[in-house]
Specification:
The chain has 364 residues and is of the alpha/beta class. It is built from twelve helices and twelve strands. It has a seven-stranded mixed beta sheet with strand order 2-8-7-6-5-3-4, with helices on both faces. α10 runs parallel beside α12 (350-363). The structure holds 4'-deoxy-4'-aminopyridoxal-5'-phosphate (PMP). 4'-deoxy-4'-aminopyridoxal-5'-phosphate is lined by residues 46, 98-100, 124, 167, 171, 198, 200, 228, 230, 236, 241.
Length: 364
């Protein structure tokens, strides 16, 4: 006690000890929201520009009426609907808080300290973060011509490899992996290594040669498919995604899930979205048509854009990256710059797409 009767503030001798793996963890950089005021657009996070479909919104609002209760932990209704929609056994599905949540569970079940996780780079920026959180070692294999270099990825497999992410279409370049090349890769990969095909953008794919992860999952017990309701289904803000995998992978994923992670609102909206698939896929079709228009316009102006099968395109602008992103922001459109490599631009409202095209002419 001090003379005034208050306790003297004790300086702590140390701070709580955290796992070494989480020291210096790079922060996940979320797509920037436009500054408020005026007409602004966000082309920075590969979101669906359409507002919620009325029937889906009603289902979500209906479910919100019981959010004093915990949601169905097992997501039973959702898993049954998914099992029917994709013709897979219900115990081969695991849902999570967005497909990034499921990706984190995948690492938890498959890789730890001393293990290696292979993925292409640049690819989805959560992969290195999640790998580091798991305490495993990331083996990043450079893209070749903006595409996965599957030969190099196969050559990178060692006795320590536990998980391989294959992102198709690849975020941020938009390139897909073809079925024949992935089959050759899987023939080379050891059967006890989990190969995760991340198909977050699969509904936007129109290339007939692109792999369908579910087909490969049916043939190979070490293949797991990751899908999401965030992009084509437009539920990014509700956080629901899922994996399709054989037991014991799917079983382990469910066992490792954050209890009650997928909210009752998200579950109801996801089920309603599956029922509203035709209307939602019409929107996807319109976005695909807009993608064709935008890429055509850019190329017509002499701007190099790699083929994209996703709801975004990639401009490898190098040291002009930051300037282009700043000019877009100034014009009321946020895009997603990656260091001095390039910029990923989401296909959004035609007006926003046109703004991005006109600025690309000055910077690309
Ligand atoms: N995989 C890829 C390739 C992505 O681009 C994203 C979102 N940016 C995700 C997974 C995660 O999406 P969500 O968690 O919203 O399902």
């Amino acid at each position: 006690m001090t003379a005034s009767g208050t306790e003297a503030k004790r300086e702590p001798a140390a701070t709580p000890r955290l796992r070494e793996a989480v020291g210096g963890l790079p922060a996940y950089k979320a797509g920037k929201a436009p500054a408020p005021g005026g007409e602004t657009f966000k082309l920075a996070s590969n979101e669906n520009p359409y507002p919620p479909l009325p029937g889906v919104l009603e289902a979500a609002i209906g479910a919100a009426g019981s959010f004093n209760r915990y949601p169905d932990f097992a997501c039973s209704n959702l898993l049954e609907e998914l099992a029917a929609a994709y013709d897979v056994p219900v115990d081969h599905i695991a849902a999570g808080t967005g497909s990034v949540g499921v990706a984190q569970q995948l690492l938890q079940v498959a890789a730890g300290p001393g293990d290696e996780v292979i993925f292409a780079w640049r690819s989805f920026e959560a992969y290195p973060i999640l790998t580091q959180i798991a305490g495993a070692t990331a083996v990043m294999v450079p893209l070749r011509d903006e595409r996965h270099d599957l030969d190099a990825m196969a050559a990178a497999v060692t006795g320590r490899t536990r998980l391989i992410f294959v992102c198709t279409p690849n975020n941020p370049t938009g390139a897909v992996v073809h079925r024949d090349e992935l089959e050759r890769f899987l023939d080379r990969a050891p059967d006890d290594v989990l190969v995760v095909i991340d198909e977050a953008y699969t509904e936007f794919v129109r290339d007939p040669e692109c792999v369908d992860g579910l087909e490969l999952y049916r043939e190979r017990p070490n293949v797991c498919v990751l899908r999401t309701f965030s992009k084509a289904y437009g539920l990014a803000g509700l956080r629901v995604g899922f994996a399709v995998a054989h037991p014991p992978v799917a079983t382990a994923l469910r066992a490792c899930a954050v209890p009650f992670g997928v909210s009752c609102v998200a579950q109801a909206a996801a089920v309603a979205s599956l029922h509203a698939r035709p209307a939602l896929m019409e929107r996807v079709e319109a976005l695909v048509a807009e993608r064709t228009r935008v890429v055509g316009e850019l190329r017509r102006r002499g701007i190099a854009v790699p083929d994209t099968e996703a709801n975004f395109y990639w401009l490898r602008l190098g040291d002009r990256t930051a300037k282009f992103a700043a000019a877009c922001e100034e014009a009321g459109v946020t895009v997603r710059p990656f260091g001095d490599e390039g910029v990923r631009v989401t296909i959004g409202e035609p007006k926003a797409n046109d703004l991005a095209i006109s600025l690309a002419v000055d910077y690309a």
